[in-house]
Amino acid sequence: MTDNAADRPARGLPLRGRQQALRGHAAMLGFSAAVSGSFSLGALVANDIGPVPLTTARFLLAAILLALLVTLMPAAGRGGRRGYSRADGAASWRYVVLAVLYGGYFVLMFEGLKTANPVAAGAVFTLTPLMTALVAWPLLGQHPRGSVMAVLGLGALGAVWVIFRGDISALLGFELGRGEAIYFLGCVLHVFYTPSLRLLNRGESALVTASLVTLTGFVLFLAWGWAEIVATDWAALPPLVWVVMVYLAVFATAFAASAMQFAAQRLPASKVMAYTYATPAWIILWELALGHGVALVAVLPGIAVIALALALLLRAD
C-alpha cells in the first residue's frame, strides 16, 4: 500500500513546512470552537426563522465583513497585496459549486435542528472525517496511512462517548430521527466541500475564497428563497435571533470559512475534518454555558480521548 505524499508525517519536511502545518491545525481548532456554537445557538432560534432566510442573511453579513478584511489586510503569499485581482474571479463557476455545497450544508443543518437535539446533531457530524477521507482519496489522491485512520477512529470513539455521556444503553438504543437524517444529508455536502476547497483553488488566499463563496451563496439563496425571504417579518424577530445571526455571520461563517480554507491548503482533507471530533466537547461547553446542564463527570473520559487523538495528529506534523 503506497502512501500519498500529502499524508506522510511532516517530520521530514523543512521547518517552514512544519510551521505551516501547525498553523493549519491551529486554524481548525478555532474552526471547531466557532462552528460548535452553531449547534447550541442555532437550536434556540431554529423555529423562529426559516433556514433559507437565516442562511441568506448570514451570508450577506459575512460577505460584507470578509470583503472589508480582503480590502484592508495584506494577503500572505501574494506580496502583501490587498484587495481582489482579476485572476480571483476566473472560472467563477468554482464559487457557485462551493457556495451550493457550503450553503446547502447550513440550510439542512438548521432544518434538522428544528427537531434534532444539538448533541445528537454533533453525533452525526462526527461521521464526516472518515467520509471525507474516502472522498479525498479519488478527488485529491490523498491516501491516508493506516496510522491516520487509526487516529480518526480513536477520535470517533471519544466523540461517541461524549455524545452519549458514557451511557452504553443510550448508544445501543440510538435511532436516527428525522432531524438527524436531514442534517446527515447536509454533512454529505460538507464532506464534498472540504476537498473541493483544495481541488478548485487557483492560488486565491483563504480570505478571498471565503469572501467570494459567501457572496455567491448570498446571491444564490436570495434568488432561490426570495418568496420566503420577503414573507419573513424581520422587524418582529426576537432579539435572540439577531444575536445568533451576527454570531453565525462573524464566527461560524466568515471566520470558520477562512479558517477551513487556510487549513485546507496546509493539511490533508482527512486531517482538516478530524477536528470535527472536537465538536462534541465544545458543544458540551456551550450547553453548560447556556445553563442546559451536562453530566460532566460522565463525559470527561471521552474528552480525554479526543484530546489524545488531536495530540497525535499534532505530533504527526
- Tell me the radius of gyration: 19 Å
Low-confidence stretches: 1-13
Shape: globular
N/C terminus separation: 21 Å
Features:
single chain; 317 residues; mainly alpha; 14 helices; disordered N terminus
Strand and helix map with partners:
Elements: H1 15-45, H2 51-72, H3 93-112, H4 118-125, H5 128-140, H6 146-163, H7 168-172, H8 178-200, H9 206-224, H10 226-231, H11 239-264, H12 269-274, H13 279-289, H14 296-316
Helix pairs in contact: 1-4, 1-11, 1-13, 2-3, 2-9, 2-11, 3-8, 3-9, 4-8, 4-13, 5-8, 6-13, 6-14, 9-11
3D structure, described in words:
- The protein is mainly alpha-helical and 317 residues long.
- It has one domain (14-316).
- Helices cover 72% and strands 0% of the residues.
- It is built from 14 helices and no strands.
- The protein has helices at 15-45, 51-72, 93-112, 118-125, 128-140, 146-163, 168-172, 178-200, 206-224, 226-231, 239-264, 269-274, 279-289, 296-316.
- Helix 1 (15-45) runs antiparallel to helix 11 (239-264) and helix 4 runs antiparallel to helix 13.
- The two termini are 21 Å apart.
Quick structural gist:
By secondary structure, the chain is an all-alpha fold. It contains 14 helices and no strands.
